[in-house]
Amino acid sequence: MKAVCGTLLCIVIGVCALFFSEYIPIGAVVIAILLGMIVGNTIELGEIVTKGVTFSERHILSFAIALLGVDLNFVILRELGYKSILIIIAAMAVTIFSSIVFAKIFKFKKRFALLLGIGNGICGSSAIAATKQIIGANEEEVGLSIAIVNFLGTIGIFLLPFIGTVLLGFSEINSGILIGNTLAAVGQVIAAGFSVSEASGQTATIIKMVRILMISPVVFILILTFSRKFLKHGSGIKSNGIPLFIVGFILFSFIPNFELLPEVYIRTISKISRYALIVAMAGIGLKITIGSVLKNGKSALLIGGLIFLLQIVFSSSMIFLFWK
Q1: Among 95, 114, 131, 100, residue whose Cα is nearest residue 218
Q2: The pLDDT value given to residue 58
Q3: What are phi and psi of 101, to 5 degrees?
Q4: Which is nearest to 280 in space by CA: 23, 44, 25, 28?
Q5: What is the DSSP string of 291-315?
Q6: Which one has a higher pLDDT value, 19 or 83?
Q7: pTM to 2 decimals?
Q8: Residue ranges per domain, the chain?
Q9: How far apart are CA 26 and CA 20, in angstroms?
């Protein structure tokens, strides 16, 4: 019962975020974080409210991540050749690894930079949320990472079609590969891809779907790699086995791929997952202080921007090598 007040506040913020997302093209997840930040830095939250906020950003988030598994459709892999899959995996690996390198160069928090790399490299908000516990990131790092990745992706909606078709002279298909392999959110990929052409949009969407499929192997690699060795100095990472929400994520991914439920139920579960994720992001936003944004925001944006730029350069180079 103590968690009710704070959870209700997160739900109200989530509903407001859904409403504003109809008019502001940055997505309900980011809006929920921003609204949470505004409320959290304007109103002093009491202990009862704080407990509910903590419940939302931890338990509701875990619930949302588990349900996200129903969005994974392995049939998509059949629609791509091996070269496309290889370039997706290579770009993802380079993006994530570059975040560690940039963190070292700029003396930035490695786990924070890693969230930026994972968000850019895989599927934005969902990937950041799914890996935050494994990495040991706090709420402020998660919130800022999601905001920055989505901000860069919004810029990319207009930038990537120009780079692909005008600057590099790519075909419609190759422009679709560049867009699908670079932008973080599905909505961003669809907007940018179909702004070029129907063929480009379809190609970009398929490429993006395969990137989303990569979240499962990346999670397992993170569990194995970062349990006790990486970021051990003050990282807060512990080896406690596979988190329960990851097990749930995998189990729910079986539902669409083995047709365990009718399509209408799968769509319903997917919607519940999206709404739960928005509520959890409101909780994360409520815990972000303006001081942390001023302290870490500029450096995080710089590193996120460099990661995004490297993504574009690497994917473009691979397209020149294998498709031109």
Answers
A1: 131
A2: 79
A3: -65, -45
A4: 28
A5: HHHHHHHHHHHHHHHHHHHHHHHHH
A6: 19
A7: 0.74
A8: 70-277+293-322
A9: 10
